[in-house]
Amino acid sequence: MSKLRVHAFSISLDGYGAGPNQDLSNPFGVGGMALTEWVVHTRTFQQLFGDESGTTGIDDDFAARGSGNIGAWILGRNMFGPIRGSWLDDSWKGPWGENPPYHTSVFILTNHPRASISMEGGTTFHFVTEGIHVALKQATEAAKGQDVRLGGGVATVRQYLSAGLVDEMHLAVSPVLLGSGEHLLAGIDLPGLGYQCTEHVATVKATHVVLSKRASSKELS
Ligand SMILES: NC(=O)c1ccc[n+]([C@@H]2O[C@H](COP(=O)([O-])OP(=O)(O)OC[C@H]3O[C@@H](n4cnc5c(N)ncnc54)[C@H](OP(=O)(O)O)[C@@H]3O)[C@@H](O)[C@H]2O)c1
Fold first, then answer.
1. Distance from residue 184's CA to the centre of ligand 1 (Å)
2. Could you say which residues of the chain have pLDDT below 50?
3. Which of 79, 136, 165, 184 to mutate to test the pocket of ligand 1 (most atoms within 8 A of CB)?
4. Among 61, 152, 154, 162, which lies 20 to 30 A Cα-Cα from 185?
5. Which atom of ligand 1 has the smallest separation from the CA of 152?
6. Distances from the Cα of 147 to the Cα of 14, 75, 95, 101, 190, angstroms
7. CA-based angle 158:82:142, to the nearest 5?
8. C-beta separation of 120 from 99 below 8 A
9. Are 139 and 130 in contact (CB under 8 A)?
């Protein structure tokens, strides 16, 4: 059965997945880029840009886990870029250039309809206005038996977590404090939803934590 997986999602020590005031020059919000320090030098991340010289080791191993058996992605509209409200025109196609690093269908949650966009390298952006369940259904169909990766941002992951729909989530807790921004887990009763910590490993740059959802009695029967 297709799983919904979160990988390489970075949070600060005080729990923020993005800093405040996101804009074009601060895509992770002010101060938020510090969250990504553990991943940006890894081989897996550098390979996205055709560079083979990145670091290997535990941080890279966790980054690499996110690329196997993924047949579709789901994103929130803010992760697609800094434009808010109605789309003024069709010129904005995400911050990743003509060949985004997805190479699958990508379902973007938004309240503002827009036609799908085909990009180079097999990425197609679809804009879903009917909510998280419809986006997951469409992504699962597009994934054709592979898993669906939930890329973020924070509000989007929070909705799928709160609905108990995330099967597995890798968090990288970075040794920085943000103080404000988008908080990932506040108010979500993870154990009540059936989540438990199934793995934790610390490196110099991050503490990696994997949360997994226990199979419900219905799923086991
Ligand atoms: N820490 C990490 O590893 C990580 C990973 C990915 C992203 N990020 C960061 O997270 C930030 C973005 O997160 P965010 O929490 O601000 O926003 P987000 O989850 O990317 O997007 C939220 C927006 O998506 C639309 N949306 C979400 N759920 C919807 C629903 N059920 N129905 C219809 N539309 C829906 C709404 O936009 P509209 O109403 O405008 O359409 C909403 O304002 C960025 O700074 C990004 O860089 C961090």
1. 11
2. none
3. 79
4. 61
5. 6
6. 30, 15, 24, 17, 22
7. 55
8. yes
9. no
User: What is the CB < 6 Å shell around ligand 1?
Assistant: 9-10, 17-18, 22, 27-29, 32, 35, 76-79, 84, 109-112, 131-132, 151-156, 159, 182
Atom of ligand 1 nearest to the CA of 154: 15
- Residue 103 burial by Cβ neighbours in a 10 Å radius (0-12, 13-18, 19+): middle
Q: What is the number of the ligand 1 atom nearest to the C-alpha of 85? A: 40
- pLDDT value of residue 219: 55
Atom of ligand 1 nearest to the CA of 32: 45
Residue 12 CA from chain centroid, whole number: 15
**What single string gives the DSSP state of each residue in the chain?**
---EEEEEEEE-TTSEEE-SS-BTTBTT-TTGGGGGHHHHTBHHHHHTTT----B-SHHHHHHHHTTTTEEEEEEETTTT-S--SS---S----TT-SS-S--SEEEEE-SS----EE-GGG-EEEEE-S-HHHHHHHHHHHHTTSEEEEEE-HHHHHHHHHTT--SEEEEEE-S----SSEESSTT--HHHHTEEEEEEEE-SS-EEEEEEEPPPHHHH-
Q: Ligand 1, atom 41: nearest CA belongs to which residue?
A: 110
